[in-house]
Design a protein that fits this description.
The protein is an all-alpha fold and 103 residues long. It has helices spanning 3-22, 26-56, 61-70, 75-102. Helix 1 crosses helix 2 (26-56), helix 2 packs antiparallel against helix 4 (75-102) and helix 3 (61-70) runs antiparallel to helix 4.
């Protein structure tokens, strides 16, 4: 038996034991576990977004971009944060979509 097969069997056994102990189906256990993981990641992403938007006094990457165009925000010092914020907002939206799909 391969290591992968052995691990899959161990995981299935653990899921079965936990589901039985909590008196829920394995499907519900998996769904709620995935939801909890996604929600934890969403909280972390939102905290990082809050940190960056707070640093520049903007509510979103769109507003940050508008400040670049207006010349009220120096690109040289904030470009990496702008790119990071753009990525984080995308990740936040994707996590929200995944959480919604579980509903």
């Amino acid at each position: 038996m391969t290591t992968l097969t052995t691990r899959a069997m161990q995981t299935h056994t653990i899921f079965g034991l936990v589901a039985q102990e909590l008196q829920v189906s394995e499907d519900d256990l998996l769904k709620e576990g995935v939801r909890a993981l996604l929600e934890r990641q969403l909280r972390e992403v939102k905290a990082q977004i809050f940190e960056i938007t707070g640093r520049y006094g903007v509510p979103s990457v769109g507003e940050m971009e508008a400040r670049y165009r207006e010349g009220t925000l120096e690109e040289a010092d904030s470009w990496r944060d702008f790119q990071r914020l753009d990525h984080l907002e995308y990740k936040r939206d994707r996590l929200l979509q995944l959480i919604e799909a579980l509903s």
